[in-house]
Amino acid sequence: MKPVLLIALINIFCFTTFLSAQEGSPTTLSSYVDPFIGTQGNGNTFPGATYPFGMVKLGPDCDDLSTNMGYKDTGKIRGFSHLHVSGTGGGPKYGNILVYPFSGDVKVEGYGSDRGKETAKAGYFSAELKESAILAELTSTPKTGIHRYTFNKSGHNGILIDAGSILGKQACCHEDQKLLGSEIEVLSETEIVGYNRVRGGWNIGEPFTVYFYAKFNTPASSFGTWKSGVKHPGKRMEFDSGEPVGAWLSFKGKASQMVEMRVGISFISIGKAKENFQNEAAGLSFDQAVEKARAAWDAYLSRIAITTADNTEKIKFYTALYHTLLQPADKTGENPLWKSGAPYFDDFYCIWDTYRTSHPLITLIAPEKESEIVNSLIDIYKNEGYLPDGRSGNSNGRTQGGSNADMLLAEAILKDLKGVEYGEAHDAMLKDAEVPPGGDERKEGRGGIKDYNIIGYVSTDYERAGTRTVEFAANDWAIAQAALKLGKDLDYKKYAKRAANWENLWRPVEHDGAKGFIMPRKANGTWDEDYRNREWQYYLDFAPNKIGVIPYNQTPSKYLNKGDFTVLTAGGWPDFFYESHSWEYSFYVPHDVRRLIARSGGKQAFLSRLDTFFSKKYYNIANEPGFLTPHLYTYAGQQFKSVLLLRNLLKKYYSEKPDGLPGNDDSGAMSSWYVFNKAGFFPNAGQDIYLISSPSFKQLSIALEGNKKLEILADNLSQEAIFIKSAELNGKPWNKAWFKHSDIKDGGVLRLTMSERPTDWGTEDLPPSRSDAQQK
Amino acid sequence: MKPVLLIALINIFCFTTFLSAQEGSPTTLSSYVDPFIGTQGNGNTFPGATYPFGMVKLGPDCDDLSTNMGYKDTGKIRGFSHLHVSGTGGGPKYGNILVYPFSGDVKVEGYGSDRGKETAKAGYFSAELKESAILAELTSTPKTGIHRYTFNKSGHNGILIDAGSILGKQACCHEDQKLLGSEIEVLSETEIVGYNRVRGGWNIGEPFTVYFYAKFNTPASSFGTWKSGVKHPGKRMEFDSGEPVGAWLSFKGKASQMVEMRVGISFISIGKAKENFQNEAAGLSFDQAVEKARAAWDAYLSRIAITTADNTEKIKFYTALYHTLLQPADKTGENPLWKSGAPYFDDFYCIWDTYRTSHPLITLIAPEKESEIVNSLIDIYKNEGYLPDGRSGNSNGRTQGGSNADMLLAEAILKDLKGVEYGEAHDAMLKDAEVPPGGDERKEGRGGIKDYNIIGYVSTDYERAGTRTVEFAANDWAIAQAALKLGKDLDYKKYAKRAANWENLWRPVEHDGAKGFIMPRKANGTWDEDYRNREWQYYLDFAPNKIGVIPYNQTPSKYLNKGDFTVLTAGGWPDFFYESHSWEYSFYVPHDVRRLIARSGGKQAFLSRLDTFFSKKYYNIANEPGFLTPHLYTYAGQQFKSVLLLRNLLKKYYSEKPDGLPGNDDSGAMSSWYVFNKAGFFPNAGQDIYLISSPSFKQLSIALEGNKKLEILADNLSQEAIFIKSAELNGKPWNKAWFKHSDIKDGGVLRLTMSERPTDWGTEDLPPSRSDAQQK
């Protein structure tokens, strides 16, 4: 009986939680957040202390400072630094202003400690440092890191700040971060200030400077500084000569001494860092700060309430939602590059990853925040010339495929996001679509756009021509739809036409029973029979945590196909496809699946092709280009296959364990994919429609703008009853396996009746495609 | 008799000076420098205190802070700021960290004073501030400004530092400087630190930050700060909230109080600014600093010794040499953007102006410095992707015509400049020549290069197509010659061929007796009959100080030719020609005058065309594209006409008065043109040859590398005897009106015998042209 009672209690509890969140009081949904999920394997999630969209991400940097999020479950903790990103791959970014507590003599190089117990919660992280028996506890405000160190040894205790430490100094392929310089000054017995200046990292970014103001609650009995590893006890200041510097404070030692420090961070100046400290952290105790961070998380997490008896399901769900809200970072007031009244967000890492599910999720549950994000993108375009795809450390870069910020701007228009200047959004998208970025075409904009706009596809004169062509086409449809809504009919016609450009690379080759694939084509119109990847070759074996990349000339022959380019040749930056191969990219026509079905030989051939794709493991759940593909069955009238497939994928590849994500979380992309698919519906990004699959919860409520809510009820849901028999939206029959944003944006109830067997529900009125509109 | 004696004395003095300079002891050639020359009219020269290639240029900012060099001879002095450029046009740059002394109550807005006597010398500037009866004196070290204020009123005296003040906030056409933020802190009764962060200006530059550490020799009795004009007496700190801030110190007043302050400047940090102060200025008295700056100037000025009885000639000559050495600014150790062992120079403003005469002059008299400059350019290419044409405030931009840094790099190779990695120089030039810069094609590289490389000219699809085509062709010849010297024969052939591309815009139209002009052509190969300027129209009237620019739609009809594009239509950024018209640009084929003569209809037609050009005032001495044109007679066998013309131009358009320059000095371009033409020879930039005209001095010595010297002797020189009758180089007859750099780089004596009448000297073996080489 116990389980049943528990379910009932939890149900009541959760719904109440949801309602009370609506009224603004805190809940404890954050207690389900486990920041360690995704920190092992390839998830690369950040486990430290931060706020929703927080600029400061204070967490441990471990081992050889080579991981993307700083953390590693093995090796020593090297200290706790203030800036991180979550879920990313490639060369690491950040890891600035590292703090390390010590007992005994200060070591300024090679310090670090094995660890005992680690604890991570939303807004809190702690670790026991074994050698020194110090308990390190961290929390944060949006722009301040708050540290509490409990020293358990007598003798001299101290805390050092290493302004020269950053992640990924040794990263490969020009993706290393480079320290340009650092400066530090011990202002008083309780204050240290300084900065470091860094460039590089995955996005090959321009220099940025991270300033800090550190305030200790315990006066130092002695202090010192160092430069390039040479200690200067008693010295107050190390000026910036391009070398790494640091400083330490030592405290008169006693056992069980507890020292708190608050570190204001700024991208503007030391004065601004101090101001951030004073505004956010000066008056807070450590415990108050932990509570405040928790409440900030609960305010966001409570925007979705789910009903389930399974605690593990809650942990997975709310942690996924938590991961989605880690980025982009709200740096409003911290833009050193220009002045404007617009919000300023950074760490879009990358929109190529997050436009598919993360931004649609934020648009749904926090439209006020998505509006700020979109406005910050438009402001970047206005001041720097181009929308970013990737942006971190205040620098645009890189663009893997299309100009996918277009998708966010188009959705803002299509979904009536308030407070966005639609005309400017339209202009920003057209810049992408028309003006070649030139110089470094990996940085921003659309590389190869001159080809695409003149001959209808990106030729093999340009790198990533396959990925670019299919994504530009999808981007163009987004631009077209937005233009239509804005009454710009000429633009609508122009971009709606270009949205068919993917067909210009559709070549009738056959492989594994499927006919027709996106293939390389020369500028003169002939197929490129001699195409070779130039540098990289991705492993093709599908297995979570085993996706890898190796230089082309080291690729084992089993992957190489004797060097020929085939539908299974996946690549990297200089190649035809980015991070995947033609099997995957030949499904990426999200705006015209109807036409894709036709080009694939009709419905049966298309369904068979999907079956082959998933059964032969050509599909890679860890890769964003395939995010929508499980839902394509729905477009071909077999919604139940999407349901079945997704149930298996969610179960197989996501868990509550540290290695519980199938691949790089990519700033929450993998996690937001999970949230939508667990909720039972999925956005087709850049458009205003959602596809209905099957919810995993009997009841799910989403708080919408203006105190409205969307409820999704799944009557008769069970382990077996996962198929939809019938549906009602707001009390009226709903026989389509999709709905528009306008259908639910003012709230409503989607009531589904579940069945143990597949039904015909949703197979008649199929989701819209570009070809439908073109036929009108 | 007196004059003769004086001449003799001066002769002895000067030569001795030259010799002693060779031995390293200071001379007083700097006493001939008058920094006021060029400060009125359009010269825009900087009259303040600085070092040769000095980073700090400390001088007065006047009136409404709208002039390019800060100074204006009318209106109030608003204070003394630490960074300037000299001779530039367009939107002003710099004017950072302004200091103003006051007596009585502090005013933090609208302060300023009428002035009494002003004095300017190499390394020194002073002004009497009338209202407050304060004598302001300025000097500098390379990276520190040193101020001495003598207060003559009793009552409270004070000094304010305005960190929010910059030049050109109101400049037109997106060329305004924008203050992004500022911060200031009164550290102690004798120290103020802070910074301001700025973007924009003529080169539409990225943000840069100017940090300062100011140390006073007199303790303050009170102090205060302000933000956005609101005073906060007694407050120590204003953090950066994006607004302008400042601070002041007040001193217990007494009459005849003298307060010195030293201001370390840095682009890195406040710590580095303090370090610069400590390294350069902490131990120097004001008078010692003045002496040291003077000696630094003399060390450079003494590299050329001239013999003349005319003091005014010396003033004009050494001031011109002084102007040439003001820029680029040596910022080695002050690069916030990347780390490298290379030198770092900034304020190339622009190479389009200075490649023709300034860099050839520096190469000749200070090759060790030109080598550093070239290495810094290569380092910019290596770290940012492109060589600059313009660069200021650590940002590339803009490129008016060709990629003229190529000329400097090619010359470095052709003239055997030591310490330059020639292979890297070659790579940097090829990047310009091959890779479209894209995005903002005004920033760097070659806009329109895809046209140029494929169809052989820049079509009217691109702006500045005429200027670009002719300059790309000259650049390509420079690349070709350097490649040839490096043994890169394929590159030589490729670029030597492209160097003929100017001919593709040569259209056989007739005007004023001349046939054949560079004219607009469409991408499809047809002449662009409908070409219109898009935005700007330059005045065509030739008159010094009257060259102007007006918006096209406001152009008086007398200039407009009813809107038709003609050979006299001059333009600006978006037009076919930059800053000039086809008459001028159709002479710009510096690398193939032989072919130009042929295309112009042969020698007689060409000479007649030159006569028309100069007599009809189509020539504009104030514009760089015509720098070489007076020498083109020499290529057509009438060297004497070049001599006669140049004598008249030098006399008519240069004087020792404040308005003594014919136009913007453009970082010394006008001045170095003067130096060469007074010396009697002239470089054909991007090549290794010099053209001999006629010296203005009986004797001129140039100190070359390795204690060698080049002497130019003009026997029988007089007001009338200006033509060359015969010549010897190192004792052997020299019948060519040109020589190669290799002919003189190890020193030598060029002895000319002058005549009152034109002779046949130099009319046989004419200067080399591309067409000669192509015929071999």
Q: Can you count the beta strands of chain A?
A: 34
Helix content of chain A: 25-40%
Q: Order of strands side by side in the largest beta sheet of chain A?
A: 5-6-7-8-17-12-11-10-15
- So what's the oligomer here? homodimer
Secondary structure layout:
The structure is a homodimer of 776-residue chains.
Chain A: H1 2-22, E1 49-50, E2 57-62, E3 77-81, E4 98-103, E5 115-121, E6 124-129, E7 134-141, E8 144-151, E9 157-162, E10 177-188, E11 191-200, E12 205-216, E13 222-227, E14 230-233, E15 237-238, E16 245-251, E17 257-266, H2 270-280, H3 286-301, E18 304-307, H4 311-324, E19 329-330, E20 345-346, H5 351-354, H6 358-365, H7 367-384, E21 391-392, E22 395-396, H8 405-414, H9 422-434, H10 449-455, H11 465-485, H12 489-498, E23 506-511, E24 514-518, E25 536-538, E26 549-551, H13 557-560, H14 582-585, H15 593-599, H16 603-615, H17 632-635, H18 639-653, H19 669-679, E27 681-684, E28 689-692, E29 699-704, E30 708-715, E31 723-729, E32 732-733, E33 738-740, H20 741-744, E34 748-755, H21 770-775
Parallel strand pairs in A: 30-34
Antiparallel strand pairs in A: 1-2, 2-3, 3-4, 4-9, 5-6, 6-7, 7-8, 8-17, 9-16, 10-11, 10-15, 11-12, 12-17, 13-14, 13-16, 18-29, 19-20, 21-22, 23-24, 25-26, 27-28, 28-33, 29-30, 31-32, 31-34
